[in-house]
Amino acid sequence: MLVLSRKPNESIIVTGKCRITVFNSNCKLGIEGPAKVVRAELEPQPVRKTGEKPMVHILDDDLNLLRAYRTYLENSGFRVETFRHGGEYLDSLSENCDASAAMFDLRLAEEDIDGLQVLQQLRARRYDFPVVLLTGYGDVDTCRRAFHSGCYTFLQKPASPEDILTKLQLATRQYLNGELSYPYDPAMMAR
Fold first, then answer.
1. 3 state DSSP class of 181
2. CATH of residue 147
3. 18 is in which domain, residue-wise?
4. Which stretches of 37-107 are DSSP H helices?
5. Which of 17, 48, 82, 135 could form a disulfide with 106 if both were Cys (CB 3.0 to 4.6 A apart)?
């Protein structure tokens, strides 16, 4: 039996053989193998300070859509950072990244990497926040690869503002409550 402490007054008890990965944001743990995980919460602590808005990253090559997403989501209680290029987005990430979720367009400008490649790079760098992919060109193979790479969900373009808001609210709430984890597994991404 192994007892891990994630934050003050909280512990995770792991029994059985497993591999444990500690991710670089919010002290998230990835536990793989036949182990049984039991969480013992002594005094629940809020994951974020009261009143602090969750951060969402938006990646889309359409400037008008970025402006619309930013305005709508900021008016709905999020902090928002927007990016037009996948490489620019990946370069901007730091160890202190405070994103609670992200939303990427699957197809970006032809000279750029696509949203799926950005997602794969995020997971390879051990960022574990949920990512919603937007696509107007969904196919079964792309969908399968996205979920194997750690996609939270897909939304079909044009997605309604209400659908976007609902998915991001649910994703951030689950992430901040420690209910989501996307461990990096290169074998899964290769499929």
1. coil
2. 3.40.50.2300
3. 2-45
4. 63-75, 86-92
5. 135
